Amino acid sequence: MSNSTPSFKTIIVTKLDNPAGLKVGQIQFNRPDVLNALNIELMGELLRALKGFDKDNEVGCVIITGNAKAFAAGADIKEMATQSAIDMHIRDQFAVWDKIRKIKKPVIAATSGFVLGGGCELSMACDMIVAAESTKFGQPEIKIGIIPGAGGTQRLTRAIGKARAMEMILTGRMYTAREMFDAGLISRVVDDEVFLEEAQALAREIASMPPIALQMAKDAILKAFDTTIEGGLEYERKAFYLLFASDDMKEGMNAFIEKRKPLWKGK
Ligand code: CAA
């Protein structure tokens, strides 16, 4: 593991070695006193760290995590409580979230404890969620007189369907990792003691794949959320054909034929 960068106050940023391929970038929220409430400073730092990893040729996959008690208990209520509608419109604090969606490398949320409100929305903005058994997911905004504002009504509905999203958002109740697994929101539920190691192992496995193909695959999957099936299939096919221009495609196929391990160039 390489050292965390000292230029962040609300997150801890590290790079994890990966004998099988590129490194894993890890971002850990570091506001434990407020259950990692996502204030404006933290979201700015998160985006800066994500963009840094996206440009870093040593990194193949990114993990976002919290601590045992909370991944994140939502947007920082104390920071929002005194704002007017016009204040919220002017500072447009959720605009930064759109930029998270533009990160090209795969991003895994490794969750534990509370994953509420903006925390749940942030986990859904990631590409996969690996959840500790004790994770509690919820969109409790309704209980404080608002609604999800960072994608909850849209991403949750697409992920688990209208009826379940309605129940979750209209009651504000918390749901277990198992319930969310059954609903299709998350890709794995793992023991509390090893959830981060499991997420890191998954990230290392992904980071050992050819980087350009990874990015094209992610991009094509995300297309499924905002296009028709015809448009999506067309997009996928173009991306597939485009990969035939990459060195890694030639290396991958030659390595298969020559019965050896491929050596990726990321080109
Ligand atoms: N914002 C700011 N501070 C928060 C916070 C949040 N979202 N969640 C927890 N905290 C703070 C608490 O105020 C408390 O601070 P103090 O010690 O200074 O009082 C500290 O974290 C510990 O919290 P609790 O004492 O409440 O811990 P608990 O174990 O009793 O309860 C909890 C845990 C059920 C998660 C409870 O803290 C809670 O309900 N938090 C708010 C959850 C929420 O409503 N999230 C949605 C926010 S709005 C949003 O996210 C909008 C959006 O769409 C982006």
Brief sketch in words of this structure:
This protein is about 45% helix and about 15% strand. The chain has about 270 residues and is an alpha/beta fold.
The whole-angstrom Rg is 19 Å
Q: Biggest sheet: strands, sense, closure?
A: 6 strands, mixed
| Tally of DSSP helical segments | 12
Q: Which ligands does the model contain, each kind named once? A: acetoacetyl-coenzyme A
CATH topology-level fold name of the largest domain: 2-enoyl-CoA Hydratase, Chain A, domain 1
Low-confidence spans: none
Termini separation (Å)?
Answer: 26 Å
Mean pLDDT level: 96
Helix and strand element order = EEHEEHHHEEHEEHHEHEHHHH
Architecture of the largest domain, according to CATH? Alpha-Beta Complex
| CATH structural class of the largest domain | Alpha Beta
Shape, principal axes of CA atoms: globular
CATH-defined superfamily of the largest domain: 2-enoyl-CoA Hydratase, Chain A, domain 1
Strand content: 15-25%
How many strand segments? 10
Number of domains: 2
Helix/strand-derived class?
alpha/beta
User: Biggest sheet: strands side by side, in what order?
Assistant: 1-2-3-5-7-10
Q: Please bin the fraction of helical residues.
A: 40-55%
Write the layout of secondary structure elements.
Blueprint: E1 11-16, E2 23-29, H1 40-55, E3 59-65, E4 70-72, H2 77-80, H3 85-91, H4 95-100, E5 107-111, E6 114-116, H5 118-125, E7 128-132, E8 136-138, H6 152-160, H7 162-171, E9 174-176, H8 177-183, E10 188-190, H9 195-207, H10 211-223, H11 229-242, H12 247-257
Parallel strand pairs: 2-3, 3-5, 4-6, 5-7, 6-8, 7-10
Antiparallel strand pairs: 1-2, 8-9
The chain binds acetoacetyl-coenzyme A.
